[in-house]
Amino acid sequence: MYRLVTVLLVALAVLSGVLSLTGALFFTPLELAAGFAVAVGVSMGSSWLVSRIFRVTSHPESAMITGLLLFFIFRPSIEPADLAGTAVAAIVATASKYLLAVRRRHIFNPAAIGAVVVGVTGLGVSWWWVASGAMLPAVVLAGFLVLYRTRRVALAGVFIAVSAVLLSVRLLTGGGAVADLATVFTSYPVLFFAVFMLTEPLTLPPKRWQQLAEAAIVGVLFSVPFSIGPVFSTPELALVVGNLLAFVAGQRRGIRLVFESRSRLTPTVVELRFRPEKPVVFTAGQYLELSLPHPSADRRGARRMFSMSSVPAAETLTIAYREHDPGSSFKKALSRLEPGDRVTATGVWGDFRLPSDSGVPLGLIAAGIGITPFISQLEDAAAGKARDIVLVYAVPDSTEIAYLDQLERLGVRVLLAAPEPPDVLPLGWTYLGPGRLTGDRLAAAIPDLDERRIFISGPPGLVGALRDVAGRRAKTDAFSGY
Question: Which spans are transmembrane here (predicted)?
């Protein structure tokens, strides 16, 4: 995602230069070049410097994204005062990642808090010049790519709907005509804000309904003018307020884990076991974000999301992952953990949870490493009332059936999709045959599919394909790999 967002923002910046040359933008090519150089240069330079001060590994691509966002927020100019305001915003944005952070996780969107500080101190004014008719088609295309990849369409949709309605009412009650409603998207940064600012994952609350509620609240603050003393409403202030609400909604207590052991579940799947220094509060099916700073971290950084395979009441916490060759620097760091090593997690998130009503029949569909959240849920369900559950488990090879002994012990009805059946098929298991797990095969395997609450966990492609068959009510958990 860092790479995709970086490429798209750079493409928008290049387009702005082309539009400037044709006279479609108000700013000159020199002003755009100066604004770009200061925003991106100061952001990356200050990130390198601050990382040395705090003795942490810098993340150049994250710093570049922050700089690019500030480039589109502040006025491109060759005036020293304007450039100084942009530079201060970049420095504040970088510092906020370390000073306004809890559990190695920044509270506020860095670009937004940088713009707020500059605005409140009077050092500059945000322009959000990216909101223009000339830039709109490219922003729409970039937005589609980002939202499709992050699966944040609903989040952005709520914000856009709320903002568009309120801004339209303002225009109409202010004497505008219906034909002028295009101003909502050409004079206000509704789309750019929703795609590149609001959806930043590190500043979102943990649950889907909380995210949608935050989007609605931010949409209201974004669209309705207000002032508190010398502080006036701006898009960046609306987002900072939303970030604060997200922080309050999340788990704020630090999560510290002591590594105990690792075990190989299949030729490519490894499970890690940790002992929490204090109990970790979560619901079966949720995930945590593990933070593991390490030397020479690749562009994907030092944090990863892992579904927990242990039950909430367990004294130890387990996660599992699939090894790839070549692996990321993060996975290599995981493989070097020794018993007694301490790691931290920034929090617990997720709505991939079974319904509380034990009478609801369930269909669980797992592909590969997507089995991990289901193990936690099945173990947790086994400790309570009996449930009507059928598990469809697709694996690339019969030797890649993770948690085989556990599933057999739990007595779960399993429908196995694999190139060939295992040497011994456990009691209660059905072999579905070779071939990709498709919607037609799924419907044939579970005749009462429409009567069950469906949960799908696995690679994004398979999750998307099966969700179309399982219905829009199906809950999903996509494992992209890292």
Answer: 30-50, 107-123, 129-148, 153-172, 178-199, 211-231
